[in-house]
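Exercise 4. Each item below gives a protein and its sequence. For each, produce the structure-token representation.

Item: SHS2 domain-containing protein (Candidatus Uhrbacteria bacterium RIFOXYC2_FULL_47_19).
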Amino acid sequence: MGLFGGKKRDCLGVDFGSGGIKLVELKNERGRARLVTYAFNERLPGSEPANLVDDPIGTAAMLRKMMKKAKTTSLKVVGGLPVASVFSSVVTVPKSPKKEEMYEAARGQAKKLIPVPLDEMSLDIKIIEEVIKKSSSTIVTNEKDRTGRPMVQALITGASNSMIKKYVDVFKRAGLELASLETETLALVRALVGKDKSTTMIVDMGAVRTNIIIVEDGIPYVTRSVDTGGAALTKTISRTLGLDIKEAEHMKSDIRNAELSGMDVGLPKIFESALAPLVTELQYSMSMHTGKSDGDVRPVEKVILTGGTAGLSMLVGYFTRQLGIRTYAGDPWARVSYPDGLRPALDEIGPRFAVSVGLAMQQVE
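Answer:
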């Protein structure tokens, strides 16, 4: 089992999130991913354990139950590693005809950046052979450092061996063969961005945390996870209106249902105060992206919302106004075929399933 990669086959994508487990089974049908089945199990934010893989017996039992109910057929699975627990960085290394020399240079950079010994980590290094020149559409392969040496970029992703062992344990107990572990970041890019070369900011609004990913030419140059999510909205509603947490969650569901029925629901004022810190984090992330290097980068051209909280479509207009950038609701089913009658149901659950869809797509595209 590698941290990335594998052969094309029918496959499950499993996302263990703070809001529950999301499972998708896809198969390769005439070169395109086709939906076989899906399932999800919800849990309230703050439930213990905070990380589902810390309870391998209980989580594996729940996963087996979901698989039985959804009538899955594949025993191959790709698991998602949370953004907050994974190291990710793009570094510049001297170009060499020998890839191993570039890998070694990238590992040397990783040693400086990662605050734990590398023998406690599993690293994945991808050499970015062609770098798009930021000021035009020209492709260059011979960028140079100050001494004139040609340079290339490398995407380094790392996860602790101890965390990987927990995922291996859960899937083994569930009777599954782990084909690959992949970061949520790459799964989201695959499901929501695909081959689009635009500079895109993905905002993955989960129950407890929000992942912020800025992708340029398909490469995640900025990856951050901030401590705010759907639970913050729920708490704000609860505190402001004097409701308990369950009542506040029901209010969010009522708003979502009203939107699905076609009603024009504006963003309640109480939501704006809860979302203000996230807007600040998004603006900071964009500043990080445009301010790095020598400024020779493209600014964010569009924003894609996903995650459970992103199911509130009124947020699309809100972030468009606050950021001054066109914002869209992500559609993880855009490159997946499925029975026609499923579209309404898939539209409703889509924001929550972007990671699991992207994970399964790794093996079937």
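Check: The longest strand covers residues 32-42.
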